[in-house]
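It is worth pausing here to work through a concrete case rather than discussing structure prediction in the abstract. The textbook approach is simple: state the sequence, then state the predicted structure, then interpret. We follow exactly that order.
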Amino acid sequence: MLSQTEQAKAKWGGSHNAIDTWLHERQELLVLYCELAGLPPFNRAHDALPDKSDIASFCELLVDYVSAGHFEVYDKIVNGNELTASGQDLKEDLYPKISATTDHALGFNDCYADLEDDAQMANFDVSLSDLGQQLEERFALEDQLIQSIHGLNT
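Step two, the predicted structure:
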């Protein structure tokens, strides 16, 4: 996912300020995700769980990222451009799919942002893995939207 974000930044970076900011926040989110998951280069003991404060920081960034997508970036990108009929169809097709990933991210946040009990961590790794799959799908959908809008501006 990190390499896909780097490719997106290389492809669309500088074309729109909102896109640049959004892709930068995506990269920050992915770095924190990798840290929590213990993915290289962030290794953690196989049986250890991340610190609650690290999980809370990740959840905060996760909510900020998905909120920015819905309430800032999509509107700035889409409403700032006249969409062709095919672009409008794409928007109408992608938004519900992106919204589903938002719901999943918010559910993760609800479960893990304010941990008080270690028992809540029993399914953390499975939940984090599921979230990673949702994020990967979301990023692909967002990239389709950006590509459509970018194509209008070239």
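Step three, interpretation. The CA atoms of residues 11 and 147 lie 9 Å apart. The two ends are 26 Å apart (CA to CA).
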